[in-house]
Every structure is written in C-alpha cells, then in structure tokens.
Amino acid sequence: MVTAATFSLFETLDRADCSLDRSMEEVEEFETFVRNYQNMVFSVSARIVGSLADAEDITQEVFLKAYERFQELRTSPTAGGWLKTVSTNLSINHLNRYRARWRFFSEQEKPIEVAAAEAPVKSDRQEMLELALRKLPDSQRVPLVLFHFQEMSYDEIAAKLGISLAKVKTDIHRGKEALRKMLTK
Asked: Residues 6 or more apart from 176 whose CB is under 8 A from it?
C-alpha cells in the first residue's frame, strides 16, 4: 500500500499566505477534512507520478486549493470526487511539466534502480503492486492508473493526456504485461 502522508495544517496555511482570521472551529473542521481525505489524495498522486516526494508536494497543493474553496467543500457530498479530480489533474500537470526530464531518463539503456528502502514485504501483494507501478515508465503507468484506479474510459484518458486512443490502448496493454512480468518473478 502507498505510504500515507501527514501534513501540518498551520504549515499549509502559512505556505498559502492565508490569514488565520477564520474561526478556530473552522480550522479544526478543515483539519478533520484533511485527515479524512489525505490518504486518498496522496494515493492518487503517488500512483500517477510514481514518486512519493512529488506526491507529497502535489497533495499539499491539492489541500491548498481545497482550503480556498472550503466553504463550498465542507458540506458537499462530492468533496471526495473533487479532491480526486484535482489530484489527478495536478499530477498529470506535474508530469507534463517534467516530460522532457522523464523522456531523457526513459531513453537510458539501464533502468534507474528504486531505492532499497522502498522494497516491499514479500507477503504483501498490494505493496508489491505499488512498487511495480512505480517502476513502470510514465507513458505506461499514467494511462494504466487512470484506467484501473480512476476508472476513466480510454477516450477520457486520451483526451486528458492529449494522445491518440490507439496509444492509450497500447500503453495500457504494455503496462499490464510489464506488471505481470514483475509480479510473477
């Protein structure tokens, strides 16, 4: 399972240069809101970007945006969906921003090793899946995560990533095959 991230509300508020004029009750309510959704937001980001450090940054950014709209979100039954969408979009934007960097690394002959500290416990299949997902190239991991974890259709993925439908299908197929090989070793 993806490691959970924890965030300090006051660090987040300071980072956003938001005033603390809001009532203490509202601050406590927002802290509860963050605790309730932080693991889901972090998991979405981590699966898409494949980096726990980047996922933490994206998760903080998601909650900064949520704080700005907290008056609407606090009573919304669709707050979780909104957070998931924002997390997905920010994660994809992050990858697009650094696309040149990950293309460079994907062109290297020898794959980059994942740190030993991230090695899964062999008995935990979910840990193994999360680690295997992080080892996939971004071009395969992102469409695969959007399809299986975000339940987006092929057409939605193609539109979101700005790639052809055929490329989405090919990347998902290749990603599944690569995962299958990694998990059956």
From this structure: 144
